[in-house]
Amino acid sequence: MKRALIGFFSDVRYRKISHSSTVNDLLKEFFRKTIHICASLVPILADWHYQWTLMALTFIVCFYSFCEYRRLSGHPIPVISTITAYAARTRDEGRFVLGPVTMGLGVLSALILFPPEAARIGIFALAFGDGIASLAGKIFGKTRIPFTKGKTAEGSTACFFAVFFSTVLITHKPLQALEVALLAAVIEVFPIQDYDNLLIPLAIGGFVFLLP
After folding, report:
1. Over the range 154-181, which residues count as b (16 or more CB within 10 Å of their CB) and which as e?
2. Is 18 left (phi over 0), alpha (psi -120 to 50) or beta?
3. Spatial CA neighbour of 203 closest among 162, 163, 143
4. Cα–Cα distance between 88 and 117 in angstroms, integer?
């Protein structure tokens, strides 16, 4: 009975849910993107106390970088290094996991460079657009987009709608939200790996800031 249960859970873990993903892949991606979506709380904290929010983000980026260097040097920090190792993608094994750093810097830069509304839209595009795109691609992704290293039409479509609705909630301007969502979907397609965490909030925030 015990052996049968182990076999069942092992089979579930590695069962394909799309052309390229297993249940285990989805669980890891869900964990990563839950953290991603938590970035949407940052503008709320910035409204409450802007300076403290900037200092907290700076501390988090620096502390995470310290933990990563310790992990790679064979002296992991309890809990933090374990979480990082679990959430790391296959391409990051044995390397510095850059995603949290670029995400922190992207959010921090948007807050510093743009007015509150533009920064909020840019950060929401990262939190919801990029986050939901990855999950949708893992679950439903079947139509691969050429030259994008595995990006799918389903993921890009999810990104578009997530950014559109999050922007409408902020601006109440559907036409502007449509423009922002199209730009976010185009950026998300580029195969720049973790650097999209930096590019999306800066590009979207700057675009909104420059709109008439």
Report:
1. bbbbbbbbbbbebbbebbeeeebbeebb
2. beta
3. 163
4. 32
**Alpha helices, H only, the chain:** 2-13, 23-37, 42-48, 50-72, 80-87, 99-113, 116-124, 131-140, 153-171, 174-189, 196-210
Q: With both helix axes pointing from N to C terminus, report the angle between 99-113 and 196-210 in degrees, rounded to the nearest 10.
A: 20
Rounded Cα–Cα distance for residues 46 and 116 (Å): 9
Q: Which residue has the tokens 């709109």?
A: 211
What is d(CA 62, CA 80) in angstroms, rounded to the nearest whole number? 13
Give, in order, the Cα–Cα distances in Å from 29 to each of 33, 88, 121: 6, 9, 23
Give the global pTM: 0.84
Task: Tell me how far apart the alpha carbons of residues 53 and 44 are, in angstroms, rounded to a whole number.
Answer: 10
User: pLDDT 10s per residue in the chain (212 long)?
Assistant: 434 433 433 443 444 444 445 666 677 777 777 888 889 999 999 999 999 999 999 999 999 999 989 888 888 888 777 777 777 766 667 788 888 899 999 999 999 999 999 999 999 999 999 888 877 877 787 888 877 777 888 889 999 999 999 999 999 999 999 999 999 999 988 888 888 999 999 999 999 999 88
Q: Is residue 26 within 8 Å of 139, Cβ to Cβ?
A: yes
Q: Return the amino acid letter for 181.
A: A
